[in-house]
Specification:
This protein is mainly alpha-helical and about 150 residues long. It is about 60% helix and about 10% strand. The protein has 6 helices and 3 strands. A hairpin with a 2-residue loop joins β2 and β3.
Length: about 150
């Protein structure tokens, strides 16, 4: 029985996608391989790169178009939708939808600098302001409102 194809990119596929997003243009397998090998401890073979990129095309992660004697590849989706989808799947599968747990583990793993923490606080404040603006003003369902904490 064939293994079902994963919707999300594997780590190797994500490297290829990141490279193409960085290049911001369609590129040949050789161009992608040159960038990947410049960063890698152990270089990859050309045939490995082309095989991976062909699989990614079959999975719908890349689009391929003939150009001369080679193919040029480009991501089928942009960086933001792809990363949002990856994070959403991680949130559902690993954290049962708990943003609090995901953020706690993220902070533990990344050890953000004081500047990064300030930026994260600003993002949280901005998100809280947007959420407050979109809450229904009176007449809304009680089941969606959250109890306020008492001071003291």
């Amino acid at each position: 029985m064939a293994r079902p194809r994963a919707e999300q990119p594997t780590p190797g596929e994500l490297e290829v996608l990141k490279t193409l997003w960085e290049l911001a243009r369609p590129a040949t397998a050789r161009e992608v391989l040159d960038v990947l090998n410049a960063r890698a401890e152990k270089p990859r073979a050309y045939t490995s790169a082309t095989s991976l990129m062909n699989v990614m095309t079959d999975k719908g992660l890349l689009r391929r178009e003939p150009r001369g004697r080679a193919f040029v590849y480009e991501p089928a989706r942009g960086r933001e939708p792809t990363l949002r989808s990856l994070l959403g799947e991680t949130l559902r599968r690993a954290y049962d939808g708990s943003a609090r747990l995901l953020v706690a583990h993220l902070l533990d793993q990344s050890s953000p600098s004081p500047e990064e923490l300030d930026a994260i606080r600003a993002l949280l404040d901005e998100y809280a302001d947007r959420a407050a603006e979109s809450e229904p003003k009176g007449g809304g369902s009680c089941s969606t409102s959250r109890p306020r904490r008492r001071k003291g």
